[in-house]
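Methods, example record. To illustrate the input and output format used throughout this study, we show the complete record for Hydroxylysine kinase. The sequence lines were provided to the predictor; the line carrying structure tokens was produced by it.
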Amino acid sequence: MITCFHVALMSKKHSKPNFSQSQASEMVKRLFRLTPSEIHSLPSYSDQNFYVAAVEGGEYILKIMNSEHTMNPNLIEVQTYAMSFLQQNGLPCQTVLPTSSGHLMSLEEMDCGYGCQKYLVRLLTYLPGTTISKVPLTPQLLYETGKTAARMDTILQKMEHPHLTLLHRENFIWSLSSFTLLEPYISVLDGDPLQEVVKSVIHQYKISVLPKHPSFRKCINHGDFNDLNILVQPCESDGYRISGILDFGDMNSGYYIYELAITVTYMMIEHPRPIEVGGPVLAGWESVLPLNEAEKECLYVLVLSRFCQSLVIARYAVTLNPENREYLMTTSKKGVHILHQLWELGKEHVEKVWFQSAAQFSDGK
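The corresponding predicted structure is encoded as:
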């Protein structure tokens, strides 16, 4: 079981594609019969993304999957279908432009410095907007974020696909169900006061969250509804509206409460007063899907758990890919401080702030 976790992290070191701009441009011409007038790379955790503007018209994202994920094309097919399904049901998601031969993906072989490997390539529609990380997180925008997350999971739960069972990703490192698999890796925090907090959160998860799993409602999670995967655009009311949902690579079978906890975690990272985030996000979520008692009881520990996952996995990934330190540690910079703050304030205080604020926000609607 632990080995799966270790292999998943270790293998990423040599699985990320490293295509040049000219190679990406050639692929666009050959596979999609489009001529790029502009092409440039975009940041990505484990895949490779290029922005493409075509002479023929239209803007796209060329997404080159890492060699590890390429080994499971059926899972990529489910993720691709999910984006289309959400878009058909009124949420702003990317859709795939088929290749000139009518396929949704193409398998490309390339030596990116570690011998010849295969990479799945897709061309996705480009969604306009800026990441939510770059705009003021007003209570109204946080409410819309929580509401969108709940709508997304309720829609995904209705989705049918022949390979849907592949979303049962046992020991998937980013699933909150796999949280205790972090234990052998907290040695990356040796000498850091954060280590004791992480150990304590794992203990709390074991005694307060695991026994309540049977009461959680199952669903399909996006799994990474974070501040860099949500796009926004200005709207007439001087605020912002959500204009895009990106990156379905962490989709997995989980529970509704996981998605809410993940959303609260990442919105806290971008807010000047993190503890104030939970209320509006929770109010938006519950406008679509009210929590049951077990879910309410576990929200605090699950938010802490996601912070711990993000921090420990990022620290471990840096040991494998030191050249990507800045990108990998994006969440960590602010996350360490917030995790300490939440832990010191305690469950009772934080829940009181979140749930009272959510009730007041809903009453004012």
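Annotations derived from this record:
The first helix runs from residue 2 to 11.
Residues 1-11 have pLDDT under 50 and may be disordered.
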